[in-house]
Amino acid sequence: MIYRVLLTFLFLSLLAVFGVWLADHPGRVAIDWLDYRADTSVGALVAAIVLLAVAVSIFWRMARLVWSAPGRIGEF
């Protein structure tokens, strides 16, 4: 139990250090794709990628739940 608490604390500490480093070293990102140009900061890009990963994860869980529902109802 204490191992999980320490591991969680370490992970959150590293996440905080990364956030502080990112705030101290702002950068710019430019993406050119199909005649569109997106200019943003590195922090906004990282936040967008994290939000996209969370959305895909939630969608995947919901799709698995719906896909396995007939079998689970049959077992019940």
Describe this structure in words.
By secondary structure, the chain is of the alpha+beta class. Helices cover 75% and strands 16% of the residues. The chain is built from 2 helices and 2 strands; from the N terminus they run H-E-E-H. It has helices at 2-24, 42-75; strands at residues 28-33, 36-41. It has a two-stranded antiparallel ribbon. It starts with a helix and ends with a helix. The relative contact order is 0.07. The mean pLDDT is 89.
Jot down its keywords.
two-stranded antiparallel ribbon; alpha+beta
Summarize the structure.
The protein contains two helices and two strands, in the order αββα. With 76 residues, the protein is an alpha+beta fold.
Compute the separation of the termini in Å.
34 Å
Percentage beta strand? 15-25%
- Total number of helices: 2
- Determine Rg (CA atoms, Å): 20 Å
Question: Within the largest sheet, what's the order of strands?
Answer: 1-2
SSE arrangement:
Layout: H1 2-24, E1 28-33, E2 36-41, H2 42-75
Antiparallel strand pairs: 1-2
